[in-house]
Amino acid sequence: MVMVLNKKIKRVILSQKAVYIGSIILVMLSSLLYTNFNISMKNVEKNKNLFLKITMIEDAKVITQKPLENISELENKFNVLIDERKQLDVNINSNTVLRIFEKTEKVDISYIVEGKNIESDNDILLDPNFAKANNIKIGDYIELPFGKFIVKGFFSMPDYIYPLKSDTDMMVNYNNFGIAILSKNKINEINKGINYYLIKYKSKDSYKIKDYIAENNFIIFYQDIKDNPRYSFVDAKLMGSTKMGSALPVIILLLTSLLVCIVIWRIIKTEFSQIGTLYALGYTKKEILFHYLSYGNIIALLGGVSGTILGLIFVKPLTSFFISYFNIPLIENLFDIKYIIISLLIPYIFIIPAISFVTLKALRLSPVNLMRGNNEIIKIGILEKKINITKLKFISKFRIREVTRSLPRLFVLIFGITIASMFLLLGFLYKNSIDYLLNQSMNEVYKYEYNYVLKAYEDDNNYGGEEYNLSAFKVENKIESFAVLGIKPDSKMINLTDESGKSISINSVIATRPLSNTLNIKEGDKIIITNKYSNKKYEIKIDKIAEVYTGNNIYMPLSDFNKIMNLNENSFIGIFSSNKLNIDEDKILKFETKKDFEEAFKTILNPLKASFAVISLFAFVISLVVIYIITGISIEENKNNISMFKIFGYTNNEINSLILNTATIPVIVGFLISIPLLIKSMDALFRSFSKGIDFAFPLKLEPLSIVLSFIIMIGIYELSKYLSKKKILNISLSEALKSQRE
Amino acid sequence: MLVQLKNVNKNFKSMQNIVFSLNSINLEADKGEIVTILGPSGSGKSTLLNIIGGIDRADSGSIIIEGVDLNKLNDKEITKYRRNNIGYIFQFYNLIPNLNIYENIEVSTNISENPLKIEEVLDGVGMLDKRNKFPQELSGGEQQRVSIARAIAKNPKILLCDEPTGALDYKTAKEILNLLEYVNSKYKTTIFIVTHNTAISRMSDRIIRLRSGEIVENIKNNNKISAKGVEW
Ligand SMILES: Nc1ncnc2c1ncn2[C@@H]1O[C@H](COP(=O)(O)OP(=O)(O)OP(=O)(O)O)[C@@H](O)[C@H]1O
Ligand SMILES: [Mg+2]
């Protein structure tokens, strides 16, 4: 019996092709997003874990005063692996440092990403990102102070996944810093740099080795791997993307199921008398429900399968994209079957309840009522009765009536446009914010062109420029470290501003916006900070938060800084300057220009551009589908009226204007809603995942961008109107003549 | 002569076969006349009415309305013809459910060059007090009144009614006929009424009878009575 019913499914679907294709596309998009994001993230994570396992990542690093004796005895006693490693920094040119490590065999083993491993003492391995940034290829020679080396391959190393030059740095800069590996022999021959031990625990009690070394030797430096930002940043940075990856598909699916609700309700409405007849004939509710569920089955199945397949296809590029932020090799592509199954099921989870809801709503009516048609159910809404529109022109009245006729439809239309507009605005928001941020940082806050950090404190500044002092700190339970700077109260080089854009004079303790986000502190908070070098703790009170978007910094007057740190009154270690200074190379620890900083910043943000292009494409598809489907339903429902308008002598243009323009106001409303919603949600998102990134997002949306997005949205609206015109044209005059009341 | 059909033919084909045809139809109607078109189901009444209304096209022949041949007009011109000359009353009223009564009338005044005052028309059909109601809140007869008001509000020269009383009971049907007669005398509108109901022809000036697409009778009614007197 049910088989007979199902024959008509095909016919109905074919008659509503556009609606079906649109819904399938939306489901496909969300499945695609879901599979792609989650599997890629999982892939990154699994590759990372595999990589850490293969390369025997250390559990701790230790620098001792005397060399460790009887290493193999220690290894047995504490059930650990110990490897000794030398490292030294080499200046390749005035601005670029290469950190060279000794090749290890047991712990923190280098993993060859491309090319070959070291075979002779003249071979060198390089960090692939550094090589790329500096245009070095495998087989090239590089000149170092102690010889010429041939680049044999590119490598990754587990304790340098995020290759920061210093623990206190926040951003990698592949242009200025890279890591390399030389053979044991060669390093021993060079015999420079520092020497430390890498320890890998093999049992629960292995950590006790620390106490043992402390007792029997002397620990100069000891770092647990989780305190190593070069390792632990990766997780923090991947988190934000994962969140986005699960939220977006759910929102699109929600939209799709609402749309499907409306579509199925429309089908059911035209079939009321059929349902009533079937009902009266003795079909059970269940049978009728299953019949209507099969309409959704097709959407969920086709959308889910195609989306999942597409998602899988794009796993590799997305994984590479994420991995390229870090120095993790893509060892193998690992597809987590769990996500594939979820991705195929999720559309059902949304669509089945949606269809059941509308079908059961119809089935609550008695068979008699159903057979009589739907006039029972077309009730005039309170809204329709109440609104007073007698003064308006007919055309406006008609549109208002049309829009308010089905509130669910109005809601879906606005919701869809809001979502799509948010996607559309996102790219602009991003661009405006970055532009603002860079402009503010580069031109308004940091007035210096050159920044020198010396190797030791000095008391008299004979170099020129403006001296400042600096040290690295962290707070308990946070891996992120930050700088505290003592600067001149009347600094010409650093100009901090508050929310209203007014300059803040440096006579108190001021934290930057990104730091306040990272540490979750506000004005007036007292925090305990630990010096990273001396391990001394200090309590400071944050007096003000400066609206500066780059730099995890705390600023205070130079004299206060020196007093707290127990330094001489005029002590300084750094100099800001607007022109190049004449300082002895040997005295300089670090030298950076503002341009370097800007470049580094831009390279980090560049890859994001591609993802915004993809998101804009989504915006386009979603809004087109939503407007087209809603307009389509509106046309379908107005078939009789349109035909009648034609009989009355309305021209096609007049009919188009009456029917198609009804969505104008909802489209505009949806767009307007999207602006504050986007800013609010992005603010929340960035707050949650910009922790640990040393810039805050100012979230600026220029009026021009809003206007442009609006024009694009209206363009999409016009396009969907254009596509719908044919439907109106095709409605024949006889429709109204033959049809009974609907 | 307001309406003049000369040798009008219209075929309906399915695949190759002609399933129905109107054959060499000739008829005339003066301004202000009431014409009834009678005939069994499927005889071509609606088809003929639609051709006169410019809703359907004839295959050959000429349909001359105030000297203009509809068959020579293009789609745009024929739309304009309908817009300015034709009022249409459907068997099932075809009111727009989500517009109230007043707004339903505006549907036609909106495109008219010299519409009548909506209040006046509504008053004429006795529906002025229901102007803010919605169609579903009205009975069938009331809905048909509104539909008549809608048709005449744009002040058409020709009013086409396809089974205007077909869905109504006796008493209501008679009220509608009264109303049509009133419209005819007040606005001098030429009215074509398609009906199964032979009795209705007694109130008309001209009676046309169709059978299988051909006019088998076309007479002037010399014993025209008022709508009140029509009984069946
Ligand atoms: N668009 C069409 N295509 C094919 N055949 C049609 C079309 N419209 C009408 N016909 C056929 O033409 C014939 C006349 O139809 P018409 O609607 O004019 O009859 P009628 O006299 O109005 O009948 P009724 O009293 O039932 O309304 C019918 O046989 C019908 O099937
Ligand atoms: Mg008919």
Please provide a written account of the structure.
The complex is a heterodimer of chains A (742) and B (232). The longest helix of chain A is centred in the middle third of the chain and has 42 residues. In chain A, strand 15 and strand 16 form a beta hairpin. In chain A, helix 2 crosses helix 10, helix 7 runs parallel beside helix 19 and helix 21 crosses helix 23. Chain A contains 24 helices and 20 strands. In chain A, strands 1, 2, 3, 4, 5, 6, 7, 8, 9 and 10 form a 10-stranded mixed beta sheet that branches. Chain A starts with a helix and ends with a helix. Chain A is α+β, with helices and mostly antiparallel strands. Chain A has 4 domains: 215 residues, no CATH class; 107 residues, no CATH class; 207 residues, no CATH class; 130 residues, no CATH class. Chain B has 232 residues and is α/β, with parallel strands linked by helices. Chain B has a single domain, classed as 3-Layer(aba) Sandwich (Rossmann fold). Chain B has a 6-stranded mixed beta sheet with strand order 6-7-8-3-9-10, sandwiched between helices. Chain B has a 4-stranded antiparallel beta sheet with strand order 2-1-4-5, with helices on one face. At the A-B interface, helix 14, helix 20 and helix 24 of A face helix 2 and helix 3 of B. The structure holds adenosine-5'-triphosphate and magnesium ion (MG).
